[in-house]
Structure prediction request, 226 residues.
Amino acid sequence: SQELEQSPQSLIVQEGKNLTINCTSSKTLYGLYWYKQKYGEGLIFLMMLQKGGEEKSHEKITAKLDEKKQQSSLHITASQPSHAGIYLCGAGPNFGNEKLTFGTGTRLTIIP
Amino acid sequence: DVKVTQSSRYLVKRTGEKVFLECVQDMDHENMFWYRQDPGLGLRLIYFSYDVKMKEKGDIPEGYSVSREKKERFSLILESASTNQTSMYLCASSLPGVRTGELFFGEGSRLTVL
Prediction:
């Protein structure tokens, strides 16, 4: 079965600094999904990457997909307190498969 | 606004009790899911339903069953709760096709089994 490893597991960043979270798959990626979870709540969909080399941005969050490396990165520019939470990547075993596997998440703390 | 509602945010049950976790979505989505989330293990899929009365096992279905009698409602049933089922349970829904993978999650139900 597919496994998604996220690094780092936790991150403490000063407000205004940039940061990067990585997600590496044990198998070929057929689409990669990024979610954010506020502590003790459900997940919120951020963005979906489907093609190798694809890059998407949402506000100050940019995600890229490197199919060859079976990896995706999520980059936050000029971090703000509102960015704090747990970021999770998810992927399906093949195209159009709804049953996603998720990484264990990266806990992001923003300090003023 | 899209909404997935889980009936209980917090539950405390005793070992051996039958537990029902209810989930309702108002988006007319075909797909519905139950995940559990545990520290260090992340989210693991318990069951998936792609239509009324249709279901598929996920990665960890043992000890659980599901019911989907209506499109908008997906219930997770713990026939005889055990302490190792203490967890955060997350329900989600999605559309099939091009938006596959864009799941809408409820706020979660935190279950403690004593």
